[in-house]
Amino acid sequence: MKNPRDGQSADTRERILDVAERLFMEHGYEGASMRQITGEASVNLAAVNYHFGSKEALLQAVFRRRLACLNEERLRVLDRLEAEAKGRPLKPSQIVDAFFGTMLRMAQDEDCGGQIFLRLLGRTMTEPAEFIRTFLAQEYRTVLERYKAALFKALPDVPHAEIVWRFHFMLGATSYAIAGTDALRLVTDWEIEEEDAVDRLDRLLPRLMSFLLGGLRAPLPEFGVGKK
Question: pLDDT digits over 85-110, tens only?
Answer without folding.
Answer: 999 999 999 999 999 999 888 888 88
